[in-house]
Structures are given as structure tokens and as C-alpha cells.
Task: structure prediction
Amino acid sequence: MWICGTHPWLGGWMMGHSFWGLLILVILATLVWKGLRNRRDGNSAADRSDSLEILKLRLARGEITIEEYTNLKSIL
Result:
């Protein structure tokens, strides 16, 4: 146990905790930033094609009529 001593690898008890705390904050900030960036890019062509595939499946299952299909397709 160290009492105001230095750890050979971390440069001191407080230095070690500060380093790991800062590292965790940087990782969390990066994950949040990437998540927000992906959310902004959500209106991509891939999302539209997925929506059209779902619409086609609903038409094939008989859940919607052809008129509803064409109306919803024009909205997308």
C-alpha cells in the first residue's frame, strides 16, 4: 500500500487514476460522437431500399393493396 508514494508504472497514485479516468472519458466521447454521426446519416439510400423491401413484403403478404403500395412508395 502506498501512502503518497509513487507507482513505478503510473507515476503516482493520483496520476494513475487521472490517466484512466481521462482515457474512459475519451472513449465515451468517441462512442457518443460516432453514434450521433451515424444517426445524422440515417436518411441514406440504404434506409430507403430497406423501407421499399419491407413495403414489397407487405404487398406480397396481402397486408396492403396495390393502391396503398404505390401511395406509400411515392411517399418514400
Notes: Residues 1-41 form one domain. Helices lie at 13-40, 45-61, 66-75. The mean pLDDT is 76.
